[in-house]
Write a structure and sequence with these properties.
single chain; five-stranded mixed beta sheet; Reverse transcriptase domain-containing protein; RT_dom
């Protein structure tokens, strides 16, 4: 019951019905599945420690707009004094690109309790879906990537999936920061 879904197609507002890209696929998560995921989330402590400070999305108390504000303030501070290099990371339809195999590897390396790891691995193994179109339902097909739409765990699993990349960006920035300090000393811009 947790491993299968039916995608319903919904026409985007103001779009022509005869163009395939004008439809959005929606898969509804079962209420019992959400309750089950709340139980897992409560026990898993996903990303409670080790989360990159660069992760602004899907984090309580932080918003991507806060990152934009910080960037705006940094740019106004150095205006005309020095060039600034900025790296941003965003992904179109990020939840759709999560590889189940890589996700499970990341969860294992974060030290997730093996019983919970086995439960999540089982939830994402053998997942199938169908498409509902004009009252007809397609044959079932396998799903090998993506996290559940509307799933309680989905944002937490995505953060665990992307965290290693953000930590690598942090390390790269810290090594550049250290190099700049060696070159120019403790100036205002490097401190």
């Amino acid at each position: 019951m947790f491993k299968t879904g039916t995608v319903s197609t919904i026409l985007k507002k103001g779009k022509a019905f005869y163009e395939v890209e004008n439809y959005r696929g929606i898969t509804v998560t079962l209420v019992i599945g959400k309750v089950f995921e709340y139980i897992i989330l409560d026990k898993a402590n996903l990303m409670k420690s080790g989360q990159s400070s660069l992760q602004f999305g899907f984090t309580q108390g932080l918003l991507p707009n806060m990152a934009a504000l910080i960037l705006s303030e940094a740019c106004s501070e150095i205006s005309g004094k020095q060039a600034i290099s900025v790296t941003t990371l965003d992904s179109q339809k990020p939840f759709d690109v999560v590889s189940h195999e890589i996700l499970m590897d990341r969860l294992y390396h974060y030290g997730l309790n093996m019983n919970l790891w086995n439960i999540i691995e089982e939830l994402y193994s053998g997942v199938t879906s169908t498409v509902k179109w004009k009252g007809e339902t397609s044959t079932s097909f396998d799903i090998h990537q993506g996290v559940r739409q509307g799933g309680v765990l989905s944002t937490h699993l995505y953060k665990a999936y992307i965290n290693e990349l953000l930590l690598d960006l942090q390390k790269l920035n810290q090594s550049r920061y250290s190099y700049r300090q060696q070159l120019c000393g403790m100036c205002y811009l490097c401190s």
